[in-house]
Automatic annotation (TrEMBL):
GO molecular function, one term: protein-glutamate methylesterase activity
PTM comment, free text: Phosphorylated by CheA. Phosphorylation of the N-terminal regulatory domain activates the methylesterase activity.
Family affiliation: Belongs to the CheB family.
Name the record gives this protein: Protein-glutamate methylesterase/protein-glutamine glutaminase
Cell compartments where the protein resides: Cytoplasm
Natural source organism: Thiobaca trueperi
Transmembrane segments: none
CheB-type methylesterase domain: residues covered: 163-355
UniProt cross-references to NCBIfam families, sorted A to Z: PRK00742.1 (NF001965), PRK12555.1 (NF009206)
Length: 355
């Protein structure tokens, strides 16, 4: 018999520790080997118990979850699933945790904690199982990059009210590990990039914080998509958590449409929904990439796009946290290219602009 996945639960709430332990112990192939109420106790239990996966709260006494995770991924990297409350602070710290190497996040319900976490049991169990096989890397501190000065240093940029209609589209889908993979792609896209539409599997409430973070860190204007948003060059639109994002035509323009339709492949937003809408509204005037993620969402949509002549890209296994979604897309023949994440932006641009 296969060895069970050994889990250490870290949370300052005794009730949450108890509920998470009960949920995971009841799941086949998972064993909770211990629990800790703060990072100092967790550190000793990691040494003693050698767990396979850690669940980690964001805000805890004595040491916050972010500091603990940074030290852990630098000294003893291991799969971590964040269990985070939905607050402005919690969402921002959780995104920082994903940047530091946490594999995924499960939202901690704000009200009726016992009932709420029980409803999340299936999602939590799936993510623990996925995390056990995820690739984690030792956190290194990169050197400070040289300042990148632009014309803004001499002539401040002013807002421009009129934009040329965008007739090309870039579509991106991702799940587990996708927040960092998406950042890697967006960082390499120039400010005049055709409009970008993105479906990332992310809990409701975290998508706005993720969009704000990408807006600060990349050279594009990034926002959480709103129904009716005109898709413009130099802009990226991220699907809100719990809403499907679709690309639609409004005359000669592309616009964002949001849908509360049924989850597809158990996801809302769904990458397949986004990709199919791009196929129907933009056809061969698009390029598309499927990035790291668990499951198969997006594989069918990428194949539909390739069949229309769209330049399609799948992230390679070596740079994916989980090679589920891109691997399935490759298996179905949906990818024209299979590339490391650092090369995907250039491929997407070649697909829509030829440069």
């Amino acid at each position: 018999m296969a060895k069970p996945i050994r889990v250490l639960v870290v949370d300052d709430s005794a009730l949450v520790r108890q509920i998470l332990t009960e949920i995971l112990d009841a799941a086949s192939g998972i064993e909770v080997v211990g629990a800790a109420q703060d990072p100092y106790i967790a550190r000793e239990k990691i040494k003693a118990l050698n767990p396979d996966v850690l669940t980690l709260d964001v805000e805890m006494p004595r040491m916050d979850g972010l500091t603990f995770l940074r030290n852990l991924m630098r000294l003893r990297p291991m799969p971590v699933v964040m269990v985070s409350s939905l607050t402005a602070r919690g969402a921002e710290v959780t995104l920082q945790a994903l940047e530091l190497g946490a594999v995924d996040v499960v939202r901690k319900p704000d009200l009726d904690l016992t009932r709420g976490l029980q409803e999340y049991a299936g999602e939590l169990i799936d993510k623990i199982r996925m995390a056990a096989g995820a690739r984690v890397r030792t956190l290194t501190t990169p050197p400070d990059p040289p300042p990148r000065l632009s014309v803004d240093a001499v002539i401040p940029q002013r807002s421009v009210q009129s934009f040329r209609t965008t007739d090309r589209i870039i579509a991106i889908g991702a799940s587990t590990g996708g927040t960092e993979a998406i950042k890697e792609v967006l960082l390499r896209l120039p400010p005049d990039t055709p409009g970008v539409v993105i479906a990332q599997h992310i809990p409701p409430g975290f998508s706005a914080a993720f969009a704000e973070r990408m807006n600060r860190q990349t050279g594009l204007v990034v926002k959480e998509a709103a129904d009716g948003d005109r898709v413009m060059a130099g802009h990226a639109y991220i699907a809100p958590g719990d809403r499907h994002l679709l690309l639609a035509r409004d005359g000669a323009r592309y616009v964002c449409r949001l849908s509360s339709g049924e989850p597809v492949n158990r996801h809302r937003p769904s990458v397949d929904v986004l990709f199919r809408s791009v196929a129907q509204s933009a056809g061969a005037n698009a390029s598309a990439a499927i990035l790291t993620g668990m499951g198969a969402d997006g594989a069918q949509g990428l194949k539909e796009l390739r069949d229309l002549g769209v330049h399609t890209v799948a992230q390679d296994e070596a740079t994916s946290v989980v090679w589920g979604m891109p691997g399935e897309a490759v298996k179905r023949g949906g990818a024209v290219e299979i590339l490391p994440v650092q090369e995907i932006a250039a491929a997407l641009l070649r697909g829509v602009t030829g440069r």
